[in-house]
Amino acid sequence: MSMLSRVANNIYWMARYLERAENTARLINVNSHLLLDLPSRVKLGWEPIVDILSFRDQFYEKYDNADEHSVISFMLTDLDNPGSIISALSEARENARTVKEILPAEAWEQINEIYLFVTENKAQAFVRRTRYDFLKRIIKANQAITGLLTGTMTHDDGYCFLRIGRNLERADMSTRIIDVRSASLLPDVDEDSQAFSNIQWMSVLKSMSAYQMYRREVRVRINRQDVLEFLLLECRFPRSLLHSIEQVEYSLAELPHNKASKDRTRNLRSYLLNANPSKLTQEQLHEFIDDIQLGLIEIDSKLSESYF
Questions:
Q1: pTM of the complete model
Q2: Rounded to an integer, what distance in angstroms lies between the CA atom of residue 174 and that of residue 140?
Q3: C-alpha to C-alpha distance for 187 and 295, rounded to whole angstroms
């Protein structure tokens, strides 16, 4: 393989951390909006966001309550939390710095710029009035970086690792959102209430920026089965689980020494296609997503063995 393993590793993690920062920004934004959509008698907590990223223990070591301020602080500006936006951007920037000679100069500048913007303006995240625009800026910056890299970086081995990192991270976050959001979004509401169920599934779609594309594809009322089908199995939608896994597979096909990683990826895709997830009960869906998560971890460790 022509590319140094250290370089491949740095590009892979740069892509993962950028995707993580963007996804976390989306999640916080959607949660803030959801608070406005629900009747005041329904208490929607911020705790599910901590759960989505599996940091509950870490969170409660430091904070007493999962109130809005504490969760925003933990998820956005807490340098001790490896899943916070500021940690992710800091790691992305460090990885990008070490492979600067391989990246287009504009991409490095953009990564640096968004990191500095977040560190200098983080107070905006704590004010509801300014939070949306602050988080939107992070999302847009990441989309600009992705576009820049797609349009101006040589599509060689390094670019393959970039795509693999982005899509593995996206698949990981998508499954977490579906798992936690579908189970614990509105715990105090009567399950039969169709209106609440709609709001719940709409928020799942919006967390993955899938709402408009879903409406275009499905047209009918929003319901659990159709949403799960779309988010997990719609291969033409770039943030669906199937699309992400297929992108990893395509990128691996272009790399040497790919057998172990490719086999794992192919197995995971077959498992997803055979599972019929929209028919699963909540309990079964949770187990299914656990299996998918384990599969993603296995792909990551096979990549490490083969390349890094």
A1: 0.92
A2: 19
A3: 29
The 10s digit of each residue's pLDDT in 218-256 is 877 788 889 999 999 999 999 999 999 999 999 999 999
Domain assignments of the chain as residue spans, ordered by start: 5-307
Using N-to-C axis directions, what is the helix angle for 5-37 and 194-207, rounded to 10°? Answer: 150
Q: What are phi and psi of 215, to 5 degrees?
A: -60, -35
Residue 159 has which token pair? 């670019």
| Residue 150 pLDDT exceeds 80 | yes
Instruction: Give the closest residue to 87 by CA, choosing from 40, 21, 157.
Output: 21
How many Å apart are CA 199 and CA 223, to the nearest integer?
10
151, with CB counted inside 10 A (0-12, 13-18, 19+), is: exposed
Residue 261 DSSP symbol: H
What is the per-residue burial (b if ≥16 Cβ within 10 Å, else e) of 189-208? Answer: beeeeeebbebbbbbbbbbb
Burial 66-81 (b: 16+ CB within 10 A, else e): bebebbbbbbbbbeeb
Separation of alpha carbons 37 and 200, rounded Å: 10
Cβ–Cβ < 8 Å for 240, 250 = no
Tokens coding 256: 């040497």
Query: Is pLDDT above 70 for 193?
Result: no
